[in-house]
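User: Earlier you gave me the apo prediction for this protein. Now I'd like the version with flavin mononucleotide bound, so I can compare the two side by side. Same sequence as before, with the ligand SMILES added.
Assistant: Got it. Here's the input I'm using:
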Amino acid sequence: MTGPGSVDLRTTYLGLQLSSPIVASAGPLTRDVDGAKALADAGVGALVLPSLFEEEIVAEEVGLSLALEAGSQHFAEALDYFPTVTSFTSMADQYLEQLEQTKKAVEVPVIASLNASSTGGWVRYAKLLAETGVDALELNVYRVPTDPQLTAAQVEDTDLALIANVCASVSLPVAVKLSPYYSSMASFASRVVASGASGLVLFNRFYQPDLDLETMDVVSKVELSRAWELRLPLRWIAILRPQLGPGPSLAATSGVHTGSDVVKVLAVGSDVAMMTSALLRLGPTHVSFVESELRSWLAGHDYTSVAELRGSVSQATSIDASAFERANYLKTLHSWMTVDQHPVPGLD
Ligand SMILES: Cc1cc2nc3c(=O)[nH]c(=O)nc-3n(C[C@H](O)[C@H](O)[C@H](O)COP(=O)(O)O)c2cc1C
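And here is the structure of the complex with flavin mononucleotide:
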Protein backbone atom coordinates (compact mmCIF):
# COMPACT_ATOMS: atom_id res chain seq x y z
CA MET A 1 0.00 0.00 0.00
CA THR A 2 1.27 3.51 -0.93
CA GLY A 3 1.85 5.91 1.96
CA PRO A 4 0.47 9.47 1.64
CA GLY A 5 3.98 10.85 1.17
CA SER A 6 4.72 8.74 -1.88
CA VAL A 7 1.50 9.44 -3.83
CA ASP A 8 2.38 10.97 -7.20
CA LEU A 9 0.49 14.28 -7.47
CA ARG A 10 1.83 15.30 -10.86
CA THR A 11 -0.61 16.44 -13.52
CA THR A 12 -0.50 18.01 -16.96
CA TYR A 13 -2.40 21.25 -17.55
CA LEU A 14 -2.34 23.14 -20.86
CA GLY A 15 0.64 21.02 -21.84
CA LEU A 16 2.55 22.15 -18.72
CA GLN A 17 3.88 19.63 -16.22
CA LEU A 18 2.64 20.59 -12.73
CA SER A 19 3.88 19.08 -9.48
CA SER A 20 0.39 19.32 -7.97
CA PRO A 21 -3.20 19.65 -9.27
CA ILE A 22 -3.91 22.41 -6.71
CA VAL A 23 -3.72 25.74 -8.53
CA ALA A 24 -4.24 29.27 -7.18
CA SER A 25 -6.85 30.88 -9.44
CA ALA A 26 -6.95 34.57 -10.33
CA GLY A 27 -7.49 36.70 -7.23
CA PRO A 28 -5.91 39.14 -4.79
CA LEU A 29 -3.40 36.62 -3.43
CA THR A 30 -1.65 36.21 -6.77
CA ARG A 31 -1.59 39.97 -7.34
CA ASP A 32 1.78 40.63 -5.74
CA VAL A 33 5.08 38.81 -5.69
CA ASP A 34 4.99 38.03 -1.95
CA GLY A 35 1.55 36.44 -2.23
CA ALA A 36 2.66 34.42 -5.25
CA LYS A 37 5.78 33.24 -3.40
CA ALA A 38 3.78 32.23 -0.33
CA LEU A 39 1.43 30.18 -2.51
CA ALA A 40 4.33 28.54 -4.35
CA ASP A 41 6.01 27.74 -1.02
CA ALA A 42 2.77 26.18 0.24
CA GLY A 43 2.77 23.85 -2.77
CA VAL A 44 0.50 25.14 -5.56
CA GLY A 45 1.16 23.52 -8.92
CA ALA A 46 0.67 26.82 -10.79
CA LEU A 47 -0.57 30.38 -10.31
CA VAL A 48 -3.07 32.43 -12.29
CA LEU A 49 -2.58 36.17 -11.94
CA PRO A 50 -5.59 38.50 -11.58
CA SER A 51 -6.98 39.65 -14.90
CA LEU A 52 -5.98 42.56 -16.95
CA PHE A 53 -9.45 44.02 -17.60
CA GLU A 54 -10.63 45.30 -20.93
CA GLU A 55 -12.44 48.22 -19.27
CA GLU A 56 -9.26 49.43 -17.54
CA ILE A 57 -7.31 49.47 -20.75
CA VAL A 58 -10.05 50.94 -22.91
CA ALA A 59 -10.68 53.73 -20.39
CA GLU A 60 -7.00 54.46 -20.18
CA GLU A 61 -6.44 54.47 -23.93
CA VAL A 62 -9.42 56.78 -24.48
CA GLY A 63 -8.13 59.11 -21.76
CA LEU A 64 -4.66 59.10 -23.23
CA SER A 65 -5.73 59.86 -26.78
CA LEU A 66 -8.06 62.65 -25.59
CA ALA A 67 -5.15 64.19 -23.67
CA LEU A 68 -2.94 63.94 -26.76
CA GLU A 69 -5.59 65.39 -29.05
CA ALA A 70 -6.43 68.24 -26.69
CA GLY A 71 -2.76 69.09 -26.46
CA SER A 72 -2.09 69.04 -30.20
CA GLN A 73 -5.16 71.11 -31.08
CA HIS A 74 -4.93 73.82 -28.49
CA PHE A 75 -1.39 74.60 -27.45
CA ALA A 76 1.93 73.48 -28.69
CA GLU A 77 3.39 74.20 -25.28
CA ALA A 78 1.12 71.48 -24.02
CA LEU A 79 3.84 69.22 -25.37
CA ASP A 80 5.71 70.14 -22.18
CA TYR A 81 2.99 68.25 -20.53
CA PHE A 82 4.00 65.11 -22.34
CA PRO A 83 6.62 63.94 -19.89
CA THR A 84 3.65 62.75 -17.84
CA VAL A 85 2.40 61.06 -20.95
CA THR A 86 5.71 59.52 -22.01
CA SER A 87 6.40 58.35 -18.47
CA PHE A 88 2.80 57.28 -18.24
CA THR A 89 2.65 53.87 -16.68
CA SER A 90 -0.49 52.29 -17.93
CA MET A 91 -2.41 49.55 -16.24
CA ALA A 92 -1.12 47.22 -18.91
CA ASP A 93 2.50 48.24 -18.26
CA GLN A 94 2.07 47.73 -14.53
CA TYR A 95 0.52 44.37 -15.19
CA LEU A 96 3.34 43.32 -17.52
CA GLU A 97 5.91 44.36 -14.93
CA GLN A 98 4.09 42.40 -12.25
CA LEU A 99 3.99 39.35 -14.46
CA GLU A 100 7.71 39.51 -15.16
CA GLN A 101 8.54 39.87 -11.46
CA THR A 102 6.27 37.01 -10.45
CA LYS A 103 7.67 34.80 -13.18
CA LYS A 104 11.19 35.44 -11.88
CA ALA A 105 10.22 34.88 -8.23
CA VAL A 106 8.56 31.47 -8.48
CA GLU A 107 9.44 28.19 -10.12
CA VAL A 108 5.90 27.00 -10.73
CA PRO A 109 4.20 27.89 -14.03
CA VAL A 110 2.62 31.35 -14.12
CA ILE A 111 -0.55 31.99 -16.10
CA ALA A 112 -1.58 35.51 -17.13
CA SER A 113 -5.25 36.41 -17.39
CA LEU A 114 -7.19 38.67 -19.73
CA ASN A 115 -10.79 39.62 -19.01
CA ALA A 116 -12.53 40.63 -22.18
CA SER A 117 -15.86 40.79 -23.97
CA SER A 118 -14.92 42.23 -27.36
CA THR A 119 -12.21 41.54 -29.91
CA GLY A 120 -10.73 45.04 -30.30
CA GLY A 121 -7.21 45.59 -29.11
CA TRP A 122 -7.12 42.37 -27.15
CA VAL A 123 -4.97 40.57 -29.59
CA ARG A 124 -2.27 43.18 -29.00
CA TYR A 125 -2.45 42.73 -25.25
CA ALA A 126 -2.45 38.96 -25.54
CA LYS A 127 0.80 39.24 -27.51
CA LEU A 128 2.35 41.60 -24.94
CA LEU A 129 1.45 39.23 -22.10
CA ALA A 130 2.89 36.29 -24.01
CA GLU A 131 6.18 38.15 -24.47
CA THR A 132 6.74 38.39 -20.70
CA GLY A 133 7.69 34.71 -20.61
CA VAL A 134 4.52 33.50 -18.88
CA ASP A 135 3.65 29.87 -19.42
CA ALA A 136 0.05 30.23 -20.57
CA LEU A 137 -2.85 32.67 -20.91
CA GLU A 138 -6.29 32.47 -19.37
CA LEU A 139 -8.99 34.36 -21.24
CA ASN A 140 -11.96 35.23 -19.08
CA VAL A 141 -14.95 35.95 -21.31
CA TYR A 142 -17.25 37.90 -19.02
CA ARG A 143 -20.37 39.53 -20.35
CA VAL A 144 -24.00 39.98 -19.43
CA PRO A 145 -25.98 40.17 -22.69
CA THR A 146 -28.88 42.54 -21.98
CA ASP A 147 -29.81 43.53 -25.54
CA PRO A 148 -33.14 41.84 -26.42
CA GLN A 149 -32.19 41.92 -30.11
CA LEU A 150 -29.09 39.84 -29.50
CA THR A 151 -29.70 36.13 -29.96
CA ALA A 152 -27.88 33.35 -28.12
CA ALA A 153 -26.29 32.31 -31.42
CA GLN A 154 -24.94 35.85 -31.95
CA VAL A 155 -23.53 35.98 -28.42
CA GLU A 156 -21.80 32.64 -28.95
CA ASP A 157 -20.43 33.62 -32.36
CA THR A 158 -19.00 36.88 -30.99
CA ASP A 159 -17.35 35.06 -28.09
CA LEU A 160 -15.95 32.39 -30.40
CA ALA A 161 -14.50 35.06 -32.72
CA LEU A 162 -12.78 36.70 -29.73
CA ILE A 163 -11.43 33.35 -28.53
CA ALA A 164 -10.22 32.33 -32.00
CA ASN A 165 -8.51 35.71 -32.44
CA VAL A 166 -6.64 35.54 -29.14
CA CYS A 167 -5.66 31.88 -29.63
CA ALA A 168 -4.34 32.57 -33.13
CA SER A 169 -2.33 35.58 -31.98
CA VAL A 170 -0.11 33.78 -29.45
CA SER A 171 1.89 30.60 -29.55
CA LEU A 172 1.20 29.98 -25.84
CA PRO A 173 -1.58 27.65 -24.72
CA VAL A 174 -4.81 29.53 -23.95
CA ALA A 175 -7.38 28.41 -21.39
CA VAL A 176 -10.83 29.98 -21.64
CA LYS A 177 -12.69 30.73 -18.42
CA LEU A 178 -16.40 30.48 -19.12
CA SER A 179 -19.58 31.45 -17.37
CA PRO A 180 -22.16 28.69 -16.84
CA TYR A 181 -24.86 30.69 -18.64
CA TYR A 182 -24.47 29.48 -22.22
CA SER A 183 -27.75 27.86 -23.26
CA SER A 184 -26.10 24.83 -24.84
CA MET A 185 -22.96 24.35 -22.80
CA ALA A 186 -21.82 21.05 -24.34
CA SER A 187 -21.97 22.44 -27.87
CA PHE A 188 -20.38 25.74 -26.90
CA ALA A 189 -17.57 24.08 -24.96
CA SER A 190 -16.60 21.93 -27.92
CA ARG A 191 -16.69 24.96 -30.23
CA VAL A 192 -14.40 26.84 -27.84
CA VAL A 193 -11.92 23.99 -28.11
CA ALA A 194 -12.33 23.92 -31.91
CA SER A 195 -11.53 27.67 -31.91
CA GLY A 196 -8.07 26.94 -30.57
CA ALA A 197 -8.41 26.83 -26.78
CA SER A 198 -6.12 24.33 -25.08
CA GLY A 199 -8.37 24.15 -22.03
CA LEU A 200 -11.52 25.31 -20.27
CA VAL A 201 -11.80 26.81 -16.80
CA LEU A 202 -15.25 26.04 -15.40
CA PHE A 203 -16.83 28.24 -14.11
CA ASN A 204 -16.44 31.94 -13.78
CA ARG A 205 -18.48 33.34 -10.86
CA PHE A 206 -20.68 36.31 -11.59
CA TYR A 207 -20.76 38.88 -8.84
CA GLN A 208 -24.40 39.86 -8.66
CA PRO A 209 -25.36 43.36 -7.57
CA ASP A 210 -27.56 43.84 -4.49
CA LEU A 211 -29.70 46.75 -3.26
CA ASP A 212 -29.19 48.79 -0.11
CA LEU A 213 -32.77 49.43 1.05
CA GLU A 214 -31.84 52.52 3.10
CA THR A 215 -30.12 54.41 0.31
CA MET A 216 -31.73 52.45 -2.57
CA ASP A 217 -28.25 52.24 -4.08
CA VAL A 218 -26.98 49.32 -6.05
CA VAL A 219 -24.32 47.64 -3.97
CA SER A 220 -21.51 45.64 -5.50
CA LYS A 221 -19.81 43.41 -2.98
CA VAL A 222 -17.69 40.35 -3.60
CA GLU A 223 -18.96 37.31 -1.74
CA LEU A 224 -16.53 34.44 -1.31
CA SER A 225 -17.79 31.11 -2.58
CA ARG A 226 -19.75 28.56 -0.56
CA ALA A 227 -19.14 24.81 -0.55
CA TRP A 228 -22.31 24.00 -2.57
CA GLU A 229 -21.00 26.01 -5.53
CA LEU A 230 -18.71 23.10 -6.37
CA ARG A 231 -21.74 21.18 -7.72
CA LEU A 232 -21.91 23.15 -10.97
CA PRO A 233 -18.31 22.57 -12.16
CA LEU A 234 -18.54 19.01 -10.85
CA ARG A 235 -21.58 18.23 -12.98
CA TRP A 236 -20.27 19.89 -16.12
CA ILE A 237 -16.80 18.46 -15.96
CA ALA A 238 -18.35 15.00 -15.51
CA ILE A 239 -20.42 15.61 -18.65
CA LEU A 240 -17.76 17.31 -20.75
CA ARG A 241 -14.74 15.14 -20.04
CA PRO A 242 -15.99 12.09 -21.96
CA GLN A 243 -17.35 14.32 -24.75
CA LEU A 244 -14.17 16.34 -25.23
CA GLY A 245 -11.84 13.38 -24.83
CA PRO A 246 -8.48 13.51 -23.07
CA GLY A 247 -7.02 16.32 -25.24
CA PRO A 248 -8.29 19.62 -23.84
CA SER A 249 -7.39 20.51 -20.26
CA LEU A 250 -10.18 21.08 -17.77
CA ALA A 251 -9.82 23.20 -14.64
CA ALA A 252 -12.49 23.29 -11.93
CA THR A 253 -13.10 26.64 -10.23
CA SER A 254 -15.87 27.71 -7.79
CA GLY A 255 -16.31 26.04 -4.45
CA VAL A 256 -13.04 24.06 -4.24
CA HIS A 257 -12.24 24.47 -0.54
CA THR A 258 -10.95 21.13 0.80
CA GLY A 259 -8.94 18.06 -0.15
CA SER A 260 -12.20 16.15 -0.67
CA ASP A 261 -13.30 18.80 -3.18
CA VAL A 262 -10.04 18.32 -5.07
CA VAL A 263 -10.60 14.54 -5.09
CA LYS A 264 -14.14 15.04 -6.48
CA VAL A 265 -13.17 17.33 -9.35
CA LEU A 266 -10.25 15.11 -10.33
CA ALA A 267 -12.46 12.03 -10.22
CA VAL A 268 -14.88 13.55 -12.75
CA GLY A 269 -12.06 14.44 -15.09
CA SER A 270 -10.45 17.78 -14.14
CA ASP A 271 -6.72 18.15 -14.62
CA VAL A 272 -6.46 20.80 -11.92
CA ALA A 273 -8.54 22.18 -9.05
CA MET A 274 -8.39 25.95 -8.69
CA MET A 275 -8.85 27.85 -5.45
CA THR A 276 -9.36 31.51 -4.49
CA SER A 277 -12.02 31.93 -1.77
CA ALA A 278 -10.65 29.28 0.61
CA LEU A 279 -7.16 30.76 0.30
CA LEU A 280 -8.51 34.24 1.02
CA ARG A 281 -10.34 32.92 4.10
CA LEU A 282 -7.58 30.72 5.45
CA GLY A 283 -4.37 32.07 3.92
CA PRO A 284 -1.84 30.56 1.49
CA THR A 285 -0.77 27.82 3.94
CA HIS A 286 -4.20 26.24 3.47
CA VAL A 287 -2.73 24.81 0.24
CA SER A 288 -0.48 22.46 2.25
CA PHE A 289 -3.44 21.31 4.31
CA VAL A 290 -5.51 20.58 1.20
CA GLU A 291 -2.56 18.74 -0.31
CA SER A 292 -2.20 16.53 2.76
CA GLU A 293 -5.94 15.75 2.71
CA LEU A 294 -5.64 14.83 -0.96
CA ARG A 295 -2.61 12.60 -0.31
CA SER A 296 -4.34 10.84 2.60
CA TRP A 297 -7.50 10.19 0.62
CA LEU A 298 -5.59 8.80 -2.37
CA ALA A 299 -3.37 6.59 -0.23
CA GLY A 300 -6.33 5.46 1.89
CA HIS A 301 -8.22 4.41 -1.24
CA ASP A 302 -5.26 2.62 -2.83
CA TYR A 303 -4.48 5.18 -5.51
CA THR A 304 -0.81 5.69 -6.20
CA SER A 305 -1.26 8.81 -8.32
CA VAL A 306 -3.57 11.61 -9.36
CA ALA A 307 -3.39 10.22 -12.91
CA GLU A 308 -4.99 6.99 -11.72
CA LEU A 309 -7.94 8.83 -10.16
CA ARG A 310 -8.52 11.36 -12.94
CA GLY A 311 -11.75 10.82 -14.87
CA SER A 312 -12.54 7.51 -13.19
CA VAL A 313 -16.06 8.57 -12.22
CA SER A 314 -17.04 10.34 -15.42
CA GLN A 315 -15.92 7.42 -17.59
CA ALA A 316 -18.00 5.03 -15.54
CA THR A 317 -21.21 7.05 -15.37
CA SER A 318 -21.50 9.53 -18.21
CA ILE A 319 -22.08 7.30 -21.21
CA ASP A 320 -25.33 9.17 -21.84
CA ALA A 321 -24.84 12.50 -20.16
CA SER A 322 -28.42 13.76 -20.57
CA ALA A 323 -29.94 10.58 -19.10
CA PHE A 324 -27.55 10.99 -16.21
CA GLU A 325 -28.85 14.52 -15.73
CA ARG A 326 -32.55 13.55 -15.78
CA ALA A 327 -32.04 10.61 -13.47
CA ASN A 328 -30.19 12.79 -11.04
CA TYR A 329 -32.94 15.39 -11.15
CA LEU A 330 -35.70 12.94 -10.26
CA LYS A 331 -33.59 11.21 -7.65
CA THR A 332 -32.76 14.52 -6.02
CA LEU A 333 -36.42 15.61 -5.83
CA HIS A 334 -37.51 12.24 -4.45
CA SER A 335 -34.78 12.32 -1.85
CA TRP A 336 -36.34 15.51 -0.48
CA MET A 337 -39.89 14.10 -0.36
CA THR A 338 -38.87 10.96 1.48
CA VAL A 339 -37.06 12.81 4.23
CA ASP A 340 -39.24 13.57 7.28
CA GLN A 341 -37.82 16.91 8.26
CA HIS A 342 -35.19 19.19 6.84
CA PRO A 343 -34.24 22.02 9.16
CA VAL A 344 -33.73 25.07 6.98
CA PRO A 345 -31.52 27.69 8.62
CA GLY A 346 -33.21 31.06 8.60
CA LEU A 347 -36.63 29.60 7.72
CA ASP A 348 -37.49 27.89 10.98
C1 LIG B 1 -11.63 38.99 -4.66
C2 LIG B 1 -11.64 38.16 -5.92
C3 LIG B 1 -10.98 38.63 -7.06
C4 LIG B 1 -11.02 37.88 -8.24
N1 LIG B 1 -10.37 38.35 -9.37
C5 LIG B 1 -10.44 37.63 -10.53
C6 LIG B 1 -9.79 38.09 -11.71
O1 LIG B 1 -9.12 39.12 -11.72
N2 LIG B 1 -9.93 37.35 -12.83
C7 LIG B 1 -10.63 36.17 -12.86
O2 LIG B 1 -10.72 35.53 -13.91
N3 LIG B 1 -11.23 35.71 -11.75
C8 LIG B 1 -11.15 36.40 -10.60
N4 LIG B 1 -11.76 35.92 -9.48
C9 LIG B 1 -12.49 34.64 -9.55
C10 LIG B 1 -11.62 33.49 -9.02
O3 LIG B 1 -10.49 33.30 -9.83
C11 LIG B 1 -12.41 32.17 -8.97
O4 LIG B 1 -12.67 31.72 -10.28
C12 LIG B 1 -13.73 32.30 -8.22
O5 LIG B 1 -13.58 33.04 -7.03
C13 LIG B 1 -14.29 30.92 -7.87
O6 LIG B 1 -13.36 30.14 -7.16
P1 LIG B 1 -13.39 30.01 -5.54
O7 LIG B 1 -14.65 29.34 -5.17
O8 LIG B 1 -12.18 29.18 -5.24
O9 LIG B 1 -13.30 31.40 -5.01
C14 LIG B 1 -11.71 36.64 -8.28
C15 LIG B 1 -12.34 36.17 -7.11
C16 LIG B 1 -12.31 36.91 -5.94
C17 LIG B 1 -13.01 36.36 -4.72
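For your comparison, keep in mind: Residues 156 and 280 are 33 Å apart (CA to CA).
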